[in-house]
Amino acid sequence: MSEQLKAKSGLRGRAARVGLDKQQIVAAAIQQIDQRGLAAFSMRELARTLKVSPAVIYWHVGGLQEDLFAEISAVITANLTDDTTSGADWKVRLRSVFMRYRQLVHQHPRVAPLLGAQMKSNGVANLAWVETVLSALTQAGFQGEALRDAFNALIGGLAGFVTMELAPPPADDSNDWQQGFAKRVADIDPLHFPYTHAVLPMISNRIFVLRWQNGIDVSYDSSFELLLNIIIDGLAQRAQQLNNPPE
């Protein structure tokens, strides 16, 4: 037996002795991110928690940290599809997928940057919901490059909203920072920014730019639903234009 095969056999044996499997590793990784945030995630700390070497983790999930991140993404998005809407109109199916997406990400808000803003979460493990979205858009009438562009607009808009909604606060997350930011917003000069100042009571800590709390503490439900409606209605109009071009 070659040295490489011996090494793999040894890793398999160690994993078996501690009763470790891929599902347990991914669950522990999600728990670590939930507790500490994505920036503080550490493969060494994960291995320490599971009482194995990092090599054992890599053996289960692949040779790179990115492979583990792809598995995390797949677990979070695994339940996006809903059999009850499988035969429904494409608009209903897309609405269901993205309402469910936001609900699932809110269960693990600190994972949001991994899902929406990092290519590390890419992987074929996400194909189930990619297939669902593509099939709905195909039913709407999108084909070829138009299908590709519709997919990117949909995912970019809705997944991007959730990523921004749950953007993490500063690492220290101190009350001093929140209070200081709130004061700077309250002190916005009405002479230089009259439109902003006029609606401050309504938008202060309620819009993405002028806030000191994220979507864990402040609801963005109505804003997300508005974006979802705009995108789906816009896709419907675009599909009609593509399928019925002017003569």
Please provide a written account of the structure.
Helix 1 (3-17) packs across helix 4 (54-61). The protein has three domains: 3-63, Homeodomain-like (Arc Repressor Mutant, subunit A, Orthogonal Bundle), CATH 1.10.10; 79-168 and 221-243, Tetracycline Repressor, domain 2; 176-213, no CATH class. The chain has 13 helices and no strands. By secondary structure, the chain is mostly helical. The protein has helices spanning 3-17, 22-36, 43-50, 54-61, 65-77, 90-107, 112-117, 127-140, 144-165, 175-186, 194-198, 200-203, 221-243. The termini are far apart.
Identify the notable features of this structure and list them briefly.
3 domains, 13 helices, Arc Repressor Mutant, subunit A, 247 residues, Tetracycline Repressor, domain 2, mainly alpha
Poorly predicted runs of 5 or more residues: 1-11
Portion of residues in helices?
A: 55-70%
Average residue-wise pLDDT: 85
Tally of strands: 0
Secondary-structure arrangement, i.e. CATH architecture of the largest domain: Orthogonal Bundle
Structural Rg: 22 Å
- Can you say what the CATH homologous superfamily of the largest domain is? Tetracycline Repressor, domain 2
Share in β-strands: under 5%
Structural class: mainly alpha
